[in-house]
Amino acid sequence: MKTFRLQSVLTILFLAVSLLSCSSDDNGKETPQTISRAANVTAISGPETGKVGVDINYDISFIVDNACGKFDRIGNISIGKEEGFQIEVTYPTTCGNETPTALHTVYTFSPQSKGTFEIKFKKSETEFLVKKLVIQ
Questions:
Q1: Where is the secretion signal located (predicted)?
Q2: CATH T-level assignment (fold) for domain 34-135
Q3: pTM score
């Protein structure tokens, strides 16, 4: 009789733990899936001169495909033999507002030596938008 009672208690305990461990932490809400794509830069605003060791900020304007696009990061890219940067944007897989939208981000350049530099951001599939910078 003790064995039957012990088995019953263990079975109930096992079922209770099993049911509790299967509960969902997100309460039925799914995380929306996103995709990442490059956005083309429309303008680079910032100084044309600077000093060694002093950070220089550039305002980068770009167009996203729809109002749901969000800035993700600045990545490296090559077009032919030229090296530069591109803006990467994340989009949810569904968006109710398909209107292209202009956004901005800040790119910080930290010059470590004197010279002339070119800040290049992808403008299209075949060319960069270039901003020249002279460091004294």
A1: 1-23
A2: Immunoglobulin-like (2.60.40)
A3: 0.73
